[in-house]
Amino acid sequence: MTVLPSLGKHTTLPFCYCQPTKGVHVINVIATDMDSFSSIRYSIASGNIDKKFLINETMGDITVLDPMGLSRKYTLVVTASDGEFETSTKSCCQDTGKPAEWSAI
C-alpha cells in the first residue's frame, strides 16, 4: 500500500510589521506520514521568487533568507516527501495583504 505524506492546514500566524530581517521565522509546515519508518523531507516547490525564503528540509521551518526588496505578496507551495513514494504538494502560506498576517490555504 502506498501512503503519502499529508500536509495539514495551518492557522493565521503573526508576522513582522517592519521590514523583516534575515532569519525571521515565517511559518512551520508540518506533514504527517502513516509510514512510521520514514522521515519526511520538505522543499519549496514554487513561489519562492528571487529565493527570498529558506525551508529547513527536515523540520519544515520557513524563514526569510533575503529581506532586500521583499514584497508583501507571496504564495509558497511546499512539497513533503518521504523518499519512498509520491510527494504531497500544497500551498502553505499566502500573504493576506494585511499588515501582520500570513495564512495557510
From TrEMBL:
One of its GO terms (molecular function) is calcium ion binding. Coiled coil: none annotated. One of its GO terms (biological process) is homophilic cell adhesion via plasma membrane adhesion molecules. Residues 23-82 form the Cadherin domain. It holds the Pfam family Cadherin. Keywords: Calcium. InterPro entries: Cadherin-like_dom, Cadherin-like_sf. GO terms for cellular component: membrane. This is Protocadherin Fat 1. It comes from Caerostris extrusa (Bark spider). The lineage of its organism: Eukaryota, Metazoa, Ecdysozoa, Arthropoda, Chelicerata.
